[in-house]
Structures are given as structure tokens and as C-alpha cells.
Amino acid sequence: MIRRIAAAAAAVLICTVPVLRVSADVPEVSAKAYVLMDAQTGQVVCGNHAEEKRPMASTTKIMTALLTLESGALDMPFTVDSEAIRTEGSSMGLQEGDTVTKRVLCAGMLLPSGNDAANAAAVAVAGNIPAFLEQMNRRAAEIGMTHTCFATPSGLDAEGHGASAHDMALLAREALRNDDFAAICCQQHMRVCFGAPPFLRTLTNTNKLLSMDERVIGVKTGFTDDAGRCLVSAAEQDGRRLICVTLFDPNDWADHQALFDYGFASAMPCTLPLPELPEVPVEGGESDALRVYLREPLTLTAWRGIPPEYTVQILLPPFLTAPVRKGEPVGSVLYRSGQTEIARLPLCAAAEIAQTPQEPPEQNMILRIKRALFKVFFNYPRYTR
After folding, report:
1. What fold does the segment set 2-16+272-378 form as a domain?
2. CA 209 → CA 94, 144, 198, 239, 368, distances in Å?
3. Model pTM?
4. Is residue 90 flagged as an active site residue?
5. Residues 6 or more apart from 263 whose CB is under 8 A from it?
6. Does the pLDDT of residue 213 top 50, yes or no?
7. Listed residue (237, 292, 284) closest to 262, CA to CA
8. Over residues 81-92, mean pLDDT
9. CATH architecture, domain defined by 33-250
10. Known active-site residue 61
11. Active-site pick, 113, 154, 266, 337
């Protein structure tokens, strides 16, 4: 019985697929490094030198904006740090003594690519820029960015500062899961309020793809002498989302459109096989075990005919207590790509199980002790029903 219960608590299946093949019909791209990635699963559709660390200019601000948005208190006014805003390059127009909010600073980073906004946000979030850089690199490690080092919040050239195209795609994928980030980076223009005293003004996005291609929903441009033209973009079509990253690309607008055309044309639906599901023990019911079922299989996208890699984890409690209603969610199936959750589908009760007549008080005490022991030794997950 113990072995059966433990197996019901959690099971992981790892599903592998063939290594991605390079096809002759991939568009020619001018970038020194690029990648095209499925935003849902992280599957690479195509790329070249995608793992090579290179300077990535102001696409750095994707991380700076994400950390700022994750820090909270986004609409609380404060005065910008006068030293932080003294920086070269692109600017949102901050002046000493200006009152801003973190949300406005994120708009200033993601639209006109303000280096002043990036530095001001770093100080507002972490107290100083070195402490913020530690947060950036720690968050990069959590995302799985293994060829990345952040040495500046703005993306200005600095010793050691760089990332791979693949890492920047992983970062954009994570950032777009943040609703505030997604809502800002897709705007061609934004009306924001800041200053001393604050007044309304309009910020314009440097990402021309937003007006060139209706599929595009962001994300960020970049340029320095060392990095060249850098661009991270995302596009949606037929319910699918692709992320494209090009580093040192003199023809980035056209290259991104060509890669999106190619990628979406290669998309095919891929229905995943249903996982094998264990029965769940039932306490205090007319039946001592319950079958569970998945209402419908998960459908992902196979790019260029290659199914995505994923893992499956069955999440069920060690036992249920009657009564149980037919169709009631009792657990879930968790699909992951690497460390990222792709989908979580409910597992439902396949039958109705009525409660048996009330047992004597001493039996109820035994049942409560058993439940307490299961919680201690198996630590099964809780579910939102």
C-alpha cells in the first residue's frame, strides 16, 4: 500500500526528441549570431552561433525592466538619484530633482531606451548599481542564461558585459510572462507623467518592427559601437509565439521578418500522448481506490516537423477522503520545458465515491493519525480547485 501511495504522489516522465536539424530553406541572415525560439516550449527553430557570448547593447534593459517590475510599488512616486541619471547615450530626458515612478522608468527603458532610466531604476530597486548588477546576474542564472554576464544596467559597453542570442531569447521568454512588461514593450507610443513638477509627455518606441509587422508584440532594440545593431523581438500568429534575437545585424528589421515568415510557415500542431495515470487511494469511501483522467490532451507546436522536448509530472495526493464527486479536480499534470512550466492540466475523478457510514470515534482517531503521518512523510502538494 505504501509503495502504491508514494507512486501516486508524484511521477516524472522525461520525453526526448531528435536533435534539431538545419534545413536548407532557412533564410540567410546578416547577424553574427541569431536564434529563433518557440516562446512556449523554448524549442529552437533555427539559429547560428546562438551560444556565442557577445555584447548585446540596450537589449540588456529587458532584464533591468523585468527586475524593476518584479520589485513592486510600481506607481509610488519618488525622486530620481541625481548621480545615476548622469550617463551617456540614449535618454528618456530625466533631470535632477525629477519625480518618477518605477513603471514610468520601465517605459523610459523599453521605448526610447533611456540609459538614465535604467540607472535610476537600478538605484531605486537595489540601493546602488553594483547591488543591482548582482540581482541581474542572479536572475540570469535562475532563467538558465549560462553564457551571460551583466556589467551595466543600461547595456553600454563594459568589460565582460555580454550574452548569447539563445540566452537573450530565454530572457525575453521570461519577461513576456510578466503582464506589466508585455503591456509596455508592445507600445509604439506611451503617454507618461514625470518631472519637477511632473507633467505629461509622450515616449516613442525605437522598435520599428511594431509598425512594420502586425504580428510583432515587442521587445527591445540595442546599439553600441562594439555590439552593433541588436534586436530582440517577439511575434504571434495563429495562437503561436516566436522570439527572435539577432546580435550585430546590420539588416535586423528585414531579417526578423524573414525569420518569422519562415518559422510560422514551419509550424504544425503536435498532440502529446496521454500519460499513464495511477489510481488514488480513498479513505472512508465505498470504494478504496479512484481512477483519474485528463479531460483532453495537450497540444503543442512541432517546428519543422520536430516535436518539442518536455517533461511530465503527475501530481496527486497520497490519498483522498470520501465523498468524491465525479469530474471533480483531484490533482494535475504538470508539463515543463527545462525549468519553465508549459501547462498545468487538471486530473479529474472518473467516478463518484460515496462516504461510508460514520465510524466509531476510535476509528476516526486512527484515520486522523494516518492523515497526519502522510502529510509529514510524503509532503504532498496542495491543489487549487
Report:
1. Peptidoglycan synthesis regulatory factor (PBP3), Domain 2 (2.60.410)
2. 26, 27, 31, 19, 61
3. 0.85
4. no
5. 36, 45, 46, 242, 244, 303
6. yes
7. 237
8. 97
9. 3-Layer(aba) Sandwich (3.40)
10. yes
11. 113
